[in-house]
Amino acid sequence: KAGVTQTPRYLIKTRGQQVTLSCSPISGHRSVSWYQQTPGQGLQFLFEYFSETQRNKGNFPGRFSGRQFSNSRSEMNVSTLELGDSALYLCASSGGQGAFDEQYFGPGTRLTVT
Amino acid sequence: DAKTTQPTSMDCAEGRAANLPCNHSTISGNEYVYWYRQIHSQGPQYIIHGLKNNETNEMASLIITEDRKSSTLILPHATLRDTAVYYCIVRVGDTDKLIFGTGTRLQVFP
To answer: B50-79: per-residue pLDDT in tens?
Structure first.
């Protein structure tokens, strides 16, 4: 069974631009969560989507948004990029049973904002 | 969600057992203990989870104290490839939100 895939793996953007990252979950998984990892703040939860609905949201500004499609694939978008948005963005998928269910992470997309 | 406390770093000789402790003194009765690890710049890898009973899988064993206020992850025969940051996380509810702390940086040496 294929794992979680994320595209692109690396991305360089300029401050003020916007970016869209993609995540394809493990086949059969209905929940996709997104995380941001920086050296200063560590791993922080962005949001979670289950059956195309946002089920939970972290403490990030509205510039960070996401969506999930009917095939469970998910995208996250960051608008008006800032230098501080440079980070490793990780997505994770699960069957959506919450604490009963383990999550599996993708390799991440490394975003650099210049 | 309950907060967890882990040592910042630990060393272990290759071939020996690595015992990684975690304190979660405010854990509630319906909260699970999960362990993940992250090898440099890769996505976190699920290791094991448990509620009350001790658990074992092909990667590790999880020992949870009877009062559930602490747990220990055991890697029975550590290898150099086990060098990573290990995160202990307490989870509850019907969402997939994980709250990561700073974890324990395990260094396995030859």
So the answer is: 999 899 999 999 999 999 999 999 999 999
